[in-house]
Amino acid sequence: MQNRKYRYLLKIQFLGFRYSGWQNQPGQRTVEGMLYKTLKFIMPGKKIKILGAGRTDAKVSALDAAFELFLEEEPIGDFEKFIEAFNLNLPPDIKALEVTEVVGEFNIIQHPKFKEYVYLFSYGEKNHPFSAPFMAHIPGPLDIGLMKSACTLFVGTHDFAVYTARAQKNTKTRRTISGCEIKENAILTANFFPKKSYMLTVRGEGFMRYQVRMMMGALIQLGRGELTVADLENSLIDASALRLTYVAPGSGLMLKRLEF
Question: What is the stated purpose of this protein (predicted)?
Answer without folding.
Answer: Formation of pseudouridine at positions 38, 39 and 40 in the anticodon stem and loop of transfer RNAs.
